[in-house]
Each structure stands twice: as structure tokens, then as C-alpha cells.
Amino acid sequence: MNNEADLNRINKRVSSLAAGSSVSVGLDGFLEQLFAILSKAEELFLAPRLKLALTNPRGHYYQVSQYGMEPAWKTYSRWHLPALERATTTPDGLIISGKSTDPTADETNWRLMLLPMNMEGQHHGYLVLFADVTFQPSETQLEFLTGISYAISSFVQRTLTQEILSIREYEIKQAHADAIQSLGLASEYRDNETGFHIMRMTNLALAIAKAYGLPEDQKELLYVAAPMHDVGKIGIADNILHKPGRLTPEEFAIMQTHTNIGSSILAGKDPMMKAAREIANSHHERWDGSGYPDGLAGEQIPLLARICSIADVFDALTSNRPYKNAWSVEEATDLILSESGKHFDPAVVAAFQAAIPEILRVRELYRDDIIDPNQSITLPPLPPREHSWVEWDDSLSVGIGTIDEHHRYLFDLINDLFEVISAKRSAHEIARLVKATKIYAKVHFRTEELMMRHYGYTGIAEQEHQHHAFESKILQFYQDMHVNPLVAQFNVLTYLRDWLIHHIRVEDAKLRTLVTA
Question: What pTM value is reported for the model?
């Protein structure tokens, strides 16, 4: 039986743990260490389980961490304060229940002790302890639990602060990237009517980079820098840039200067600017040394530029231009394979060939033309996932191949988010994926709406209303990340799954009326 002195020693150990633990151990790791200490307080009759439930800005509770229990993301739903029989609340907000009347398996037949997580004068949730239903806390034990509550709140506060700082750092970095990419978009709109080329080319390059085995940090640089490949075209005169026919040798020489112009525009020493500058300057170099502007050969050409070279050529060949019709995918692929060791790095060509399933998908996701509801699409299957939050099945098909492919891709983005959350990775990675989902949803919605408008779909007003509501909701969740990212990540994950499946089954299913027999 513990006496007051024992409880004081345990309290000091918990305080030391909360003050000394690095947030890198994560909340789950912290709770495991916490229980190892609390279990020494034998008179509390604690079960080997506990969980942390925090609130979002609208006062809804979500289980964000646990010990000895299933992670909430496995069957995620909002956590409700259980129905507490004969509950008592101390002046400090500590809640002690009688036997819980909540029907869930985790909370039945236990006396629950809810330790408030109060930070900076505000209530943020509870740490939930499970004690034997016969346990009757004494005044000393209540004081002990209150002290524990204060100590744990300090660690949760530090964890929240670290995650919020991680998001802020990501946003500063992203603001820099957005500023750079805006130049690429400016050049693209001068040279291309739709602006989708830059999205396709960037995602094609990323698909090749994945197949090549490029490290994560280099893929991230590529994704930011690839849109800058033709930024130098800002400096090319319209009569050359928009000439519908073949350029004269003199005109082509002027066009070639866009690489040097791009390199000059992208002056800077940070890794992002360096990568963008190398791509802009060297994506027209050739493996055999016959390219421009510097006649670089082989591995003298920066790797990211070698990857972008293939992505750029493939997309240019398979796209309509004022001066040419689009090549078929087969023709463009054959050309790139035939140029292995001449125009292109053989290793990058091999990665291109391995990435064909994803490359074909990218072409459907960012297509220039209006979707034809009657066009059938057959794409190679992508590798299955080991774990998924949302699963695609044929019952979700709306009968329009490209729309189905858009939906599958949104499922993939949600499953990427699920993998990051379930692996307890940094909040900035979660913020990045939430933003990526928001960006692609906008691409999907506008493309879908263009099809509806073109074919006179009568339900377009309701679709537009729901699309805008979705975008507003995702923006709200992104803002919530700045308040409590530990909760917002689960909040958005649940919403994305429920909204998308419901929207497909109820609203998008009506698009089948556009398919003619």
C-alpha cells in the first residue's frame, strides 16, 4: 500500500519525466513511460491502459494517443465524454466516475479518472486513466492525481508547440517555393493555353524520380523546382514564342537563350534556387554532349535536369501544339527509349519505363481537353497498398473513366495522409499532404465542372456548391492545424473519407446520365 511519501516520490518522477522528456519520443512513447511510473502507485488499482483525448476548436474530443489500447485511427470516430455514473469533479477539473455506463468495450466496468489537460489557461482535453471500479480515491490521492495532471499538461503543451512550429517552418519554406513557382506559372501561361503542362511535367518528373530511387529530400526539391524549367521563356519575344510554324535557325538560336535567361533569373545560393537554376539551365543538355547551352555530357548534367528532360519531352510530344498534333503515348515512349544513351541518360530512361503506369495516370489527372463521358480508359494497375484508410471498389465507379481515375487519385492522397498520421510523423508532413489534397481537389472540381458545363448537366449548381463547401472545410482544417495539429490531423482524415465516399455515391453517381448508350 502506498503512503503519502510514496505518492510524492512518484509525483516527482512524473514531473521529472514531463520536464525532461524530448518531444521526439512522441505521445505514445511518453504515455508508455508514464504508465511504468504510475503503476508503482499500487493503491490506485490502475489498469495497463490510458489514452489522451484532446479537443478541436469546436469543442469535439478526439483520441490522439494511447497506451495499452488500439490506436483510434484503426476505426476512427470522434470520442465522446462517456456517460459517467455518480461522477465527481474537483475544483481543479479532475473528474472521477463511478462505474462507466458507456457501452464501448474500452470504457465499461472501469472507474474512469479524467485528468484535465489545461494549457495557458484553456482546457484542451483529458488524460483518461482506468481504475478498478472498487477504487475510492482519498483526498491525498486526488491531490496526487491533480499534480500529475499539471505535469502531463506541460509535456502535451511542449509537444503541441513543437508541432505548430514545425508547421510554421513548413509554411515559410513553402512561401519561398510558391514565390519561385509563380515565375514558372507566368512563363507557362505565355507559352501554353491551359497551364496544365507545368502540372503534368512536374508530376511526370516526380514519377520518374520515384522509379529511379531518388532520396526524399531530392524528390522534394524536384517537385518545387521542376515548374521552373522554362522560366526563361519570359524573356523570349512573342513572335518567336507563339510562332505556329517551324522556327528559322536564327529564331531557334534566340529560343535557345531561354535556358540562360532562366539561369540568370534564378540566382541564389539556397538548395531550392540551386536546383531550379540547374533544371532551367540544363534540361536541354543531351547525354552525348550535343545539347545546349553548355554542351554538357553524361553525369556533367545535373541529375534533376536529366529527369526533367525526359518528362518535358514526353509531355511535349503527347500534347497538341499550334504547330503539331499530339503523338500517341506509344510513339512518344518509343522515341524516348530509342534515345537512351544519346539524348537521355540510360538509367533515367529505365526509370521512365518502370514509371509508365504512373505516367499514364498523370496524363489523365491533368488533361488539357474536356473530359469525354463516353471515353473508356484502361490504365495499368498500381502496386497495392499494405494498409489503406479508404478502399476503392467498383461500386464507387460513376461510369466515366477519367472521373473514376480522379477519384482513385484522391483516395491515394487520403491514404498517403493516413500513412503519415498512423506512423506518427511530423505535423509539417501532414500539413503538406492536406495542402496537396486541397490543390488536387480544386483541379478535379474545375475539370469536372468544365465537363458538366460543356455537356449541359442540369445538376451543376449543386455540384459547385458542394465543391466550394468542401474547399472551405479543408481550409478550416488547415487553419485548425495552427491551433491543435494533434487533433486536426484526425479531424481532416475522418472528414475526407466520409465526404468523398458520400459525394461519389450520392452526387457524382448522377453523372452517369452524361454517358450515352
Answer: 0.84
